Amino acid sequence: MTKAARAPRDAEAEKRLTIGFLNWAHTLDHFVLLIFPTVVIGLEVVYQRPYSELIALSSAAFIAFGVFALPAGWLADHWSRRNIMGAFYIGCGLSLIGCAFAPNLLALGFALFMLGVFASIYHPVGMAMLIEASKARGRTLAFNGVCGNLGVSLAAGISAALAAWISWRAAFIVPGVICIVSGLVYLWMTPDDRKAAKTRQSVPAVRLSMRAATMVFGLFTVIALCGGLIFNVLTIALPKIVDERLASQVPLIVVGSVATLVLVCGAIAQLAIGRLVERYSPMFLFVVITGLGFVGNLWATYTSGGLAMMVALALAVAAIYAQVTVNDMVMARYTADAWRGRVYAVRYFLLFIGAGGAVGLIALLHKMGGFSLVMGANAVIALAMFVATAALWAFLQAIEVKLPASQPAE
Description:
The chain is mainly alpha-helical. It has a single domain (15-400), classed as Growth Hormone, Chain: A. Helix content is 81%, strand content 0%.
């Protein structure tokens, strides 16, 4: 086989390898951030502090997760997306080990902050790389979303098991070592891409006027802020909701396992969405999914426990994860590859900056009225997200009908 004939095969192999590492990184990204919200239940006994006070330690981590997405996206577009992803793996690993060996709560809070800094890299950088490598293929994006959901789903169960069987410090050490090893292998196996920044396309699939772009950006801002609050209230509070409403008299490991089963529904939903986006408009599915999310959160507000509560929470979790895939596809159509890292950085900044607010919201509302009040507030936010998504659909439909029939989709 000639060198020219081998080149396309080599390029495809590199893309598959890159996508594989991005999927693994997505799993780790969500896993590492949700270790503490499970371990904190056991730390109530260790430090003799209430849940509302200890869970507040993670605020800095989740704020950093949103804020540092902005410089990560900019640096990746201008320098090297691959090298920044290497920093993600190794930085998260070192931060987790710092959490494990923190001598006091102040040091633990700082280590959690650094974890948020490095974890912030994945979404703006990794999603830009995934869109570029996959050409925004629905199934590829959906499977990547499933990998992220897998990290969320496994975090509660595995963290609880490590804390129960070994110690709460082991819940940080084991994934920390895995992150560092993964980063070293990633940098060894993937090629440098610092020259690629100059050749990326600077024209989106659909060009928008300044007025239209402003409207779309405004609606996406509302959707991202609402989605961030809903996502983080559900994932952060879920172990404690299960602990209070369903499993108050059972061991921590059982609490983590039940929470994991509920979160698995998010992975199942994204697998289904990966198929549906090949048959139906992503924007139409976006509206349907956010509507179901409102129903799930509202239902969870008025259930006291048992199977009905699990079904309601499963619906809410499935909706908030399923919308990620269609959201990414819609944004990819209206952004160019050359500045996609920065666009996704802004989106995920808005999405995850809500995590810090979510921690405060959980602590405040839980103290005032328990998790019924927490879920009621989440239902109101879910309604706002549904309304904004419906408005975005109507606006983009008006733009799309004016496009030539040959307008390329991305």
